[in-house]
């Protein structure tokens, strides 16, 4: 599959926390860095995601906001 997202970061799934409709999937990308994605529970099930599995974080966003 070809995709347009150029920011592709490989890692390993270290945690999946399922909520009512959304899951938080944490991917260890090395160097003590973790990327966490919020995706639907349906997507977690469809992709058959599990802790310990290799995965790639694909990042394509028009903006990212963080405030303190």
UniProtKB/TrEMBL annotation:
It comes from the Bacteria. Keywords: Plasmid. Pfam families: TOBE. The keyword Disulfide bond does not apply. InterPro entries: Mo/tungstate-bd_C_term_dom, Mop_domain, Transp-assoc_OB_typ1. GO terms for biological process: molybdate ion transport. This is Molybdenum-pterin-binding protein 2. It comes from Komagataeibacter saccharivorans. The lineage of its organism: Bacteria, Pseudomonadati, Pseudomonadota, Alphaproteobacteria, Acetobacterales. The gene is mopII.
């Amino acid at each position: 599959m070809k995709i347009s997202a150029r920011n592709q970061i490989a890692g390993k799934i270290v945690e999946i926390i399922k909520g009512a409709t959304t899951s938080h999937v944490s991917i260890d990308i090395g160097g003590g860095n973790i990327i966490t994605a919020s995706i639907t529970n349906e997507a977690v099930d469809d992709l058959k995601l599990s802790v310990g599995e290799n995965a790639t974080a694909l990042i394509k966003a028009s903006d990212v906001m963080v405030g303190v």
